[in-house]
Amino acid sequence: MSIVVRDVREHELDSVLALNNAAGPAILPLDAATLRSSFDSAEYFRVAERDGTIAGFLVGFGSDSGHVGDNFAWFRARTPAFFYIDRIVVASRRRGGGVGRALYADVQSYAELRHPHLCCEVLLEPGTDHALLFHGSFGFREVGQNVMHNGHRAAMLMKELCSYAWVRETYGDALPDAPWMPMPRAQSRMLAHRPTGTCA
């Protein structure tokens, strides 16, 4: 069956939370309030669906967001503009089946139109070599390491998004309205709640 990547729906947050907290030691646990905050504020929060069930998800924030976190702050102190992958999780039974690659292809397609760099981290724990190899195969390189407040050490990874400069020079802030190019979630919610008759 094919993999479908789409925006998460509010009623799916409990399933996403369970998926996250069953992912193992390489993924930090979440509580419902933190996940809800991500749903309300993340620029990108999408799930990968396979055989009618959620097989993975990815959450991301632009560098100008109000996101709070050790690793996000590390990148913001060193890089003027970027898109940050806060979390990617793939269900254990779906690992190796292309779900992670589908999510990364989708988030790169989104980010390269809006941000010059794509950033993330991998916890340097026993058994995470596969995650470093996965990211290396996508063109990420380590730009430093960060010791988080909880004592975990993370490899800080970055990838230059080569299309960004051309998109910026060609379109500026006025990207065309195309069905394959989703609007940032925060902007979508703002438009959805704008009173009728209000000027843009």
Description:
By secondary structure, the chain is of the alpha+beta class. It is 32% helix and 26% strand. The protein has seven helices and seven strands; from the N terminus they run βααββαβαβαββαα. The protein has helices at 13-21, 32-41, 70-76, 99-111, 129-137, 163-171, 185-192; strands at residues 3-7, 44-50, 53-62, 83-90, 117-123, 141-147, 153-160. It has a seven-stranded mixed sheet, sandwiched between helices. The longest helix has 13 residues, at 99-111. The radius of gyration is 17 Å and the shape is globular. The model is unreliable at 189-200 (pLDDT under 50).
Strand arrangement, major sheet = 1-2-3-4-5-7-6
Structural class: alpha+beta
**Number of separate strands:** 7
pLDDT under 50 segments (min length 5)?
Answer: 189-200
Beta-strand portion reads 25-35%
Protein name: Acetyltransferase
Keywords: Transferase
InterPro entries: Acyl_CoA_acyltransferase, GNAT_dom, UCP028520
Pfam family, one: Acetyltransf_10
